[in-house]
Amino acid sequence: MNELRKYLIPGLLLCGLFAGCTSQPGSSEQSAEQNAENKKPKIALIMKSLANDFFSSMAKGAETHQQARSDEYDLVVNGIKDERDLSRQVALVEEMVSSGVDAIVIAPADSKALVPALRRAREAGVVVINIDNKLDAEILQAEKISIPFVGPDNQAGAKKVGDYLASQLKTGDEVIVLEGIRTSFNGTQRRLGFEAAMKAADIKIADSQSAQWEMSMANTLASSMLSEHPNAKAILAANDSMALGALAAVRNSGKAGEVLIVGFDNIPAVQQAIKEGQILATADQHGGELAVFGIEHALRLIANPNAKVEDRETPVDLVTAEVLK
Hints:
Helix content: 40-55%
GO molecular function, one term: carbohydrate binding
Strand order of the largest sheet: 2-1-3-4-5-11
Distance between the termini: 101 Å
CATH topology of the largest domain: Rossmann fold
Strand content: 15-25%
Structural class: alpha/beta
CATH superfamily of the largest domain: Response regulator
Family: Belongs to the bacterial solute-binding protein 2 family.
CATH architecture of the largest domain: 3-Layer(aba) Sandwich
Number of domains: 2
Pfam families: Peripla_BP_4
Radius of gyration: 27 Å
Shape: elongated
GO cellular component, one term: outer membrane-bounded periplasmic space
Number of helices: 12
Subcellular location: Cell envelope
CATH class of the largest domain: Alpha Beta
C-alpha cells in the first residue's frame, strides 16, 4: 500500500499541475480578446501654432469633446511653436506613430511637405484625417495615398468676406492683400477668394504679399505696403493674426478709420475689434468644432476600416458687427 502511494501521489500532483497549465492558455487568450475589445482608440490631434488663438480654440473644442466621451476614446493634443516649423510637425507625426496611436487628425503647416510622413503613418496602420489646410492632391497621388479632408471651402469663405468689403468700397478703389504661406492650400484658396471678390467689384489689388500667417510680419509688411500705396482703401488679411498686425500698422500710419481691414478665422480679439469698429469683417470656420468633426470622422474609420474614404465639407460663415450684436 505504501508502495502504491509512493507512485500514485506524485502522479496525481503532476496531473494536477499539467491540468492547471492547460487551463491557463485558454483563460489568457480569452482575457487578451476581452482587453482588445475593451481597448479605447487613441487619437492624436496635431495642429499648427498654439500661439494662434484659432488653434487654441480648436484644442479646447477637441478636449471638451473627449471629456464628454472619455469612455469612447483617448486624446493627445500637440502643436508647433509657429506656422513655419515644418520639421517639428513631421517629427510629431513620427512620434505619434511610434507611441501607438490609432489615428492622427492633422492641420498640416504645409500642404506638400507633410504628405510623405503621413504616408508612412498610413503604412503603419494609422488612420489619418486632414483638417483645416487641405493636402496637395498631386502629391497625394504621387505618394499613392488617399487622405480624407474635413474642413471648409476656404475660397468660398474668403469670397464672402471680400464681397462684404467690396460693398463698402467704390469701383476703382485700391486694396492690398496679406497672404498666408503660399505652399498652403488654404492660403492659396483664400487669396483666390479675395481676388475673385475684388475682380467682380472692379476693385484693384495694388499689392499682394505673404506675411506667412504671422502678426509681426503682417505689421511690418502692411506698414511698408501702405507707405508704397497711400491710396489703398482696405487690407484683406488671409487670417486674423495678420489682420491684427495690419490693424497696428494702420494705427501707426495715422490712417485709423480710413483703411478698412478684413480677416479670416473669427478669433476673440478680432471679434472685439469688429464690435469696436476697428476691423470690418472676418470669416468663421468654427475652429472649436473643426477638430471635433475630424475626430468623429476618424472614429468612424477606426470602427469600420473598410468604409469609403470621403471628404467632408464644414461650414464657414461671414462675421460682421451686425452678426455680433
